[in-house]
Amino acid sequence: MLLLLVSDDRDLGGWEALRWRICRAVRRIAKLLPLAVTLMANRLGLRDALPCPPEKLPWPALSENIRRIAPLIQSPTLFATVAAELRLLHRLLAGDFRAWRRFE
C-alpha cells in the first residue's frame, strides 16, 4: 500500500513530492475504506491521511475487551454500577465520526 511507502522517514526520492497527495486521497475516501486503513494511517503517524483528529478515532481493541469483560461480572448490584461505567467508556472509545470532514 502506498501509505506504507510514504510513512518511512528515509529518503523517498520522487515519492516525497507525492506524500501529501497520497495522504490527502486516503483522507478523502476514508468513509469508503475499511476502518483498519484509517487506524493504520494513525499508527504510521500520517496525520495528513486522517479524516479527523487522532483522539476522535475509535479504539476497536479496547472496545472488544470491554465487551468480553462485561458478561463476567456476576453480582447484580456490582453489574449495574460497572455496566454504567463500561457504557460510558465504550461510548468514548467508539470515537466521534461526526468530527470527520470538519478536520482539515
In short:
With 104 residues, the protein is an all-alpha fold. The protein contains 5 helices and no strands.
- Number of helix segments? 5
Shape descriptor: elongated
**What can be said about the biggest beta sheet?**
none
Q: Please trace the helix and strand order, writing H or E for each element.
A: HHHHH
Gap between N and C termini: 23 Å
Count of beta strands: 0
**Residue share in β-strands:** under 5%
What class, by secondary structure content?
A: mainly alpha
Task: Round the mean pLDDT to the nearest integer and report it.
Answer: 77
> Which spans of ≥5 residues are poorly predicted at pLDDT below 50?
none
Helix content: 40-55%
Instruction: From the alpha carbons, calculate the radius of gyration and give it in angstroms.
Output: 18 Å
Key terms:
104 residues; 5 helices; 51% helix
Question: Could you characterize the architecture of this molecule?
Answer:
The protein is built from five helices and no strands. It has 104 residues and is mainly α. It is elongated and about 60 Å long. The model has no long low-confidence stretch (mean pLDDT 77).
